[in-house]
Write a structure and sequence with these properties.
The chain has 23 helices and 5 strands. The chain has 499 residues and is α/β, with parallel strands linked by helices. The protein has 2 domains: 375 residues, no CATH class; 106 residues. The longest helix has 28 residues. The termini are far apart.
């Protein structure tokens, strides 16, 4: 029975994550990470390249290995997230089963993860967040297992998982900071509680020492300090926050809550509430799951300087077992009314899941119109950070380069989609000379006019809707590629030959 269920779960996961995986054009941050993986894979001296921007390197390390097998750089990067999501789904089963000692709740948790739109979006993108969600799920599972069993092998495994997490992203330190809250599950009624508490403290120290020991690998790079500098871009340092501790809390909370409800839905919040009415003997486990979601939410609301919906994905993972418990409890409550009510219960549960199924279907097949937060739609599909036009631009330049050398100027340097896309896909082509430029000056650079005498010169605008006025008399429009369903687009021009 379990084998058949697992085959269905894995098949459902594979179909939802792999179908048309490359259909969404490359997004700005994806281009950065994929390019890092290319460079790190080709030059051992640059294995810590992500630290140049204050990002931990574990995602890059995995991606560079997959790039040796998968030729398409974007596909290889997205497969890292697909693999991480698969491990998250498996972790959901173990987490749900361990929390509530119920195999069915574990299976339902895994099934809910497959259709969860929030998880689906990021399991299909070459970003860090899917890996972060994976480490949160397995860290929470091992937290519960450690406090219940007080076993050294569990603590050692937990330390390795926590260490791998902090090698991925700084907010993985929350998996360690939240460890004291596992004492909610500590059984004070058993004899020898002082001895067991001391053992828990010792095992927790093992976890912390292992995690920080793995994190210390980054000190091998002289760029280690960049992590703290980068963190200040997204999080207020304590010395700044203490001056106005509540200045941004309300605004951040409203934004985070709106993103959460858009991705999750009120119907699933009701299931979380239903979980607290079902199997009341597991109230400690329910509080622990809630704490792992609410406390990071509050911390992000207090300290967040620059926020995006994807920062919330890991903190929602602990809520999925609660949703599963609520769904199972609701089903049992209705089904107990009579045999015929089983079908009614199944129908009600199906309708509760329908919004997620619909949204997930739109994400896979019509992403620009998917009912997800507008900030994600704009970033990934409909506005200038999106990669609409990248594939067409690469094909155009590759074809033109067959005729001889050409030069291409792209709007933007680090983090610009067209600039990085040309590096990712065309860096090895000797006929394509290139450079990025930002900001765009009012007058066209003289070197472009000089080069246009000897070879075709192309200019690609990504953020600017039209070229500066002083440029326009030197440019001939070649193509314009729309991004998603918005008004943004990528424009390609050729510099007139002055002769």
């Amino acid at each position: 029975m379990d084998i058949g269920v697992w085959l269905l779960l894995i098949a459902g996961y594979a179909c939802s994550r792999l179908f048309a995986l490359s259909s969404l054009p490359i997004f700005t941050d994806e281009a950065i990470y994929v390019r890092w993986a290319q460079i790190a894979g080709n030059d051992a001296a640059w294995r810590f390249i992500s630290l140049t921007d204050g990002k931990q390197p574990s995602w890059v390390w995995i991606a560079m290995v997959i790039q040796r097998v998968i030729e398409d750089p974007l596909l290889s990067g997205r497969l890292v997230s697909v693999g991480a999501g698969l491990l998250t789904m498996i972790g959901m089963f173990f987490l749900g089963r361990e929390l509530f000692k119920n195999r069915l709740i574990g299976l339902v948790s895994a099934g809910l993860y497959i259709i969860y739109p929030f998880a689906l979006v990021y399991d299909r993108m070459a970003l860090y967040d899917s890996m972060m969600a994976m480490f949160v799920v397995w860290s929470l599972f091992l937290t519960v297992l450690m406090v219940r069993t007080l076993r050294l092998d569990v603590a050692l495994l937990f330390g390795l998982v926590a260490g791998a997490g902090v090698l991925t992203k700084s907010n993985a330190f929350l998996n360690i900071y939240l460890l004291p809250f596992s004492l909610i599950l500590f059984d004070l009624s058993k004899q020898g509680r002082v001895k067991r508490l001391l053992r828990w403290i010792g095992l927790s120290l093992v976890v912390v020492i292992l995690a920080y020991g793995l994190y210390s690998i980054l000190r091998l790079s002289p760029l280690f300090h960049m992590i703290d500098e980068k963190n200040t871009t997204f999080v207020y340092p304590f010395r700044e926050w203490i001056q106005r501790p509540f200045a941004f809390f309300i605004g951040n909370s409203n934004g985070l809550w709106d993103w959460f409800i858009t991705y999750t839905g009120w119907h699933m919040v009701l299931l979380i509430g239903a979980a607290f009415l079902y199997k009341r003997e597991y109230w400690r486990e329910k509080l622990l799951c809630l704490a792992w979601a609410v406390l990071p939410f509050i911390a992000l609301a207090f300290f967040g300087k620059v926020l995006y919906p994807r920062y919330m994905l890991p903190m929602t993972m602990s809520l999925i077992p609660l949703m599963a418990l609520g769904a199972v409890g609701f089903f049992m409550f209705i089904a107990e009314k009579g045999r015929r009510m089983v079908y009614v219960a199944a129908l009600v549960i199906f309708f509760l899941m329908l919004p997620w199924i619909y949204t997930s279907g739109m994400v896979v097949t019509q992403f620009p119109r998917a009912p997800i937060p507008m900030s994600d739609l704009n970033q990934y599909s409909n506005d200038w950070p999106a990669g609409g036009g990248v594939n067409e631009l690469v094909a155009l330049l590759r074809e033109e380069a067959k005729k001889g050398q050409l030069y291409v100027l792209t709007e933007g340097t680090f983090g610009s989609v067209p600039t990085l896309a040309i590096e990712i896909y065309l860096d090895s082509n000797p006929n394509i000379l290139k450079r990025g430029l930002y900001p765009i000056p009012d007058r066209i650079p003289q070197d472009l006019l000089d080069r246009a005498k000897d070879m075709p010169v192309y200019v690609v605008f990504n953020q600017s809707s039209v070229p500066p006025f002083e440029w326009q008399r030197y440019l001939v429009p070649i193509a314009r590629y729309q991004k998603g369903i918005g008004s943004a687009g990528m424009s390609v021009f050729q510099v007139r030959n002055p002769q």
